[in-house]
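Thread: Modeling a multi-component assembly for a lab meeting

Hi all, long-time lurker, first post. My supervisor asked me to bring a structural picture of a complex we are working on to next week's group meeting, and I have zero experience with this. I have the sequence lines for every component (988 residues in total). Could someone generate the structure of the whole assembly? Inputs are pasted exactly as I received them:
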Amino acid sequence: MATLQHPYLDLAAMEALRSVRLRPRGAAEGTFAGPHKSHFRGTAVEFADYREYSPGDDIRLVDWKVYARTDRHYLRLYDAERNLLTYLVVDKSGSMAFSGAVIRTPPKLEYAARLAAALGYLVLREGDELGLSLVDAQLNSHLPAAAAWSQMNRVLDSLGNASAEGRTDLGACLEQVFTQTKRRGVLTVMSDFLDVDARFWKSVDLFRRSRFDVMLFHIVHPEEIELPAVAAARFLESEGSGHFNAEPDAVRTIYRHRFDAFLSEVKANCQARGCDWYLAKTSDDPYGFLRNCFLARENGR
Amino acid sequence: MNWPAFTNPLMLAGLAAVGLPLLIHWLTRARPRRIAFPPFKFLVEACAGQQAVNRLRTIILLIVRCLLVLALVLLFARPFLKPIGAAANTQPARRVALVLDASLSMHAVQQGVPLFARAQAEAAEVLRSLPSGSEAAVIFEGAEPRSLLPALSENIPALHDLLVKSQPTFENGDPAAALTHAQKLLNGTGTIYVFSDFQKSNWEPVRELPGGIACRLRPVTTEAVDNAAITAARMVPATPVTGEPVEIICTVFNCSSRPREETVRLELGEFTRETRVTLPPFGTADAAFTVAFSHAGSFAGKVSLAPDNLREDNTRYLAVNVGKALDVVLVSDADEADWNSSAFYLSRALAPSPQAAPGINLVRRRGQDLDRGILETADVFCLAAPASLSGEALEIIARRVNEGARLISFLDGPTAPALMFPALNPPFQLQGTVTSANGEPVTMGTQKIFGELDAGDFSAARFRRHFQNRPPANRAGDTLLTYPDGSAALTISPAGRGSLVLVNLPLTPDGGDFIGSPIFPALLHELLRALRRDSAESTVTPGAPWVLDVPTAGEGALTVMDPDGKKVEAQILASGRTTRLALPPAKIPGIYSVKQADAVVARAVVNVDPHESDTRPLALENLKPGTNSAVTVQRSEEEFSPGETIRDLWPRLAAAAVILLGMEMLLLALWRSSRTAAGAKPTEVAP
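Re: Modeling a multi-component assembly
Sure thing. I ran the full set together rather than chain by chain. Output:
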């Protein structure tokens, strides 16, 4: 752990996240025992149920007191506690390269990478398993979930090597990620969600039906909300060849209404599917933002 | 068909500037930054239609600005519509000379419009109606005829432009000179248009209109403009001394058919006075003011009436130099202490004491004691039969009298013939001495300087000796007193700019009882008064060159300033005791100052010609047409030429430029406000 040195992971700043934990809303289905409640019966301390003995059961689980009273063999069952599987999906399409025209901030991809690194650290710190998928038009890079600290290094390397380019097809990519998952867990998607379509929401539904806990981190640059403060500009399509001359002052209100409607639509879709939606501005401190998200999540908001 | 032509076609080169707004737009257009913008599609949706609107706004703004520049360029080129093609060719080219009365009387306002403006508008209309190829000249009638262009010109627009910018003068009109000038310009063919008020006082000398040329007379008024004017203002005496009463007499003229009362106001030096005069119809009345200057110096002022239809002749300017005292030199060889001598009586009569002779500085000299300094500075010479006078003294006295000094020559003694001063054109010649034991009486002559009551005082006086003479009939007017034999006893006559008094009366008690009587000092002082009644008013009028005499003092250059404080170029003609300056024709009436080293050393006044105040028009029927010339009197305001006229387009262009400018500013303001509203700060979106 002492070897963790990466521009995307500021451990000193992450002291603000010392007291927060990522808790799944449902049961954990991790491979290993962990701190999270699961559907499995195991050897934990919390009694769950009785079951009649069948050959092959561990005789250490037979409740001898019940046998003495009833002359029948019953096993005493306990809830097993498993670790949590967290899948990080980071959008690395061309639109994530935006870092502002007047208000300069880190690019959206870098901001997403910092969030992913911080989240990954928290996950691994709890002994949970962490997987990472970098997506654009397709599943670009995939790290299967693992709980070792070495996974953190792999995740950081993968994030560090990512460059924002290409088009986006989040729906298709999430379908591919879904095929790569073996057990349910927490799905966190970090993207600007500019090209969300019906297929994307179907993919989200796919995860939700599999009882995944889905969290969408909506990364935006402040200038995407309010338009850059320039008199006139030639706006280029990030993931295409389109261009358009406009005077932001002349269209700011209309644009703002349109962008608000887009954010509201994404938020409404998330709420309808029981997903968590967080709007992250690249001008905000990622760790403070993450802390607020977790606190809100724990408070049931 | 009308087609635009241009007064200043060179200004059309400015049409290249029409592209200036486009160039400025292209040079200053926003060079957009290239921004890769992820929410591109939302921006495109927001701008749907907006970009087209912006482009449309830009195009509209550019069109308005280009039109504005176009209108301004055309405005400076001064376009006008003139007939071309068939319309122009239907009328033959013409040669016309427009004579505009620009004299003072054309300042008169009738029914709210100045007469000159009326004449100007009608003359401009004639110019506009001329067919293409016509030649024209515009001549202003003033003291001297003044042509706007030196010869007939085809450049009618330029002529028109000069005409509409012109102003009337303060000069008197000389229509005969203007008509002659017009005739000379036309050189035998063409038409003379005359626009004037046809003042009788100016036009009466014009007996006949130019011959061989058609004349069209357009009176701008048919009746006299009601007017009151001060036509003269004189001071008696003209060169007063301190403490001496000065009478200022103004002649007020009523140019209207009804009697009127006017208030005459005097502002001269420290004095401000007002008096009222009653004026008969088309008659004059005098208004008199009496003032006494307390100190010597040069004073200027004016007498004025309340403004009326012709306010330019309501003011008359005055300038007066007030001297300290009148220098009288008494030349006599008799003993002043001898009560039996003429010198005794003369000196006591002239100045019994300093208090009894205010304003007189008496200096007594014997004939052989006269020096040049005394002679060159004296205002009045009294020659009481001195025994001898040098030729040089006689020459100086004669020259000084010609320059304005006064001479009283007492012919009582053997030197009398020498004191006749033939160079001063005396009214009689001495023929011989007449003696009478009982004494002869004198009677009043033709000229009256004494009142009727004073005449009786002379009836008791007897004169036992005199020089016989016979004044010619044409000089009878110079005689004040005469003997029964027809000899002149006392004459006063002008001599150069001064006066000459010949006293053919004995000045000793043995010659008669005249000098011992109380009427002797009275006669002497009355003579001095009469000698100084040279109240001739300055006759300098605008439009005529004039000369100005300035007392020479100091070495500094003389500067002449007009009433507006502008420097007037003056040329020194002669310098001596006085410096004579030649000045160009004065443009405006008023007080002209001569300065030397920032001090005013002299003042002179220029007043308008009183003839201009009489606005009564001439009956045009009395004007005889010249040989082989047709005269038309155009009494109505109908157009002189019914053909197509030249129409100035600049007022329309000026209006268009103003509208375009207003439109450009309005559009900018509207679009800026809408853009400001569109750029309002957005509301925050909660996560």
